[in-house]
Amino acid sequence: MGNRRHFYLAADEHLNEAREAGAEVALLLIDLDRFKDINNTLGHQAGDVLLHEVAQRLRRILPAACVLARLGGDEFVTLLPTTDRPTSAVHSAERFLCALDEPIYVDGLAIRVRASIGIAASHQADDDRATLLRHADVAMYQAKAKGS
26, 40, 54, 115: least CB-packed within 10 angstroms? Predict the structure, then answer.
């Protein structure tokens, strides 16, 4: 799994390739709900263990060609290089949420993780990484507000 810099480089490359091929790219922004509570009550080491397990679960369900990165804090992002139909990004988001259904055990304590996911798809030739991130961020906060 990469970091923010890795994601930026890979996303730009995938967006250019998709643009040349006339294909769409979907960006999913994943934010863990109430993660700050975990850090505050169990400590940052427990939070790190939880983040590592979340990343492993996400990586296991993604195709190898997909980019997965941690942007910072409790935010992950993935880029699906091509979407064969408009609903494929939604199906990926549902799979992510299902992957988090099973509790994560930290020091013998079962922690249930919930996440909010925002999806943005490149529909126009001039859609760039920053635009997709901005749209996914808005969608993620809308999803978070619905889940409150």
Answer: 40
Which H/E stretch holds residue 12? helix 4-21
Query: How far apart are alpha carbons 54 and 59 in whole angstroms?
Result: 9
Query: Residue 37 is which amino acid?
Result: D
Active site residues: 74
**What tens digit of pLDDT does each residue of 98-147 get?**
999 999 999 899 999 999 999 998 876 668 899 999 999 999 999 988 87
Question: DSSP letters of 59-101?
Answer: HHHS-TTSEEEEEETTEEEEEES--SSTTHHHHHHHHHHHHTT
Task: Determine the residue type at 119.
Answer: I
- Three-class SS of residue 2? strand
Q: What is the pLDDT of residues 4-33, one digit of tens each?
A: 999 999 999 988 888 888 888 889 999 999
Q: H/E element holding 148?
A: none
- Taking CA atoms, 121 is separated from 79, 91, 99, 133, in Å, by 10, 14, 22, 10
Q: Which residues are within 8 A (CB) of 81 and not within 5 positions of it... i.e. 6 or more apart?
A: 14, 17, 18, 23, 25, 65, 66, 67
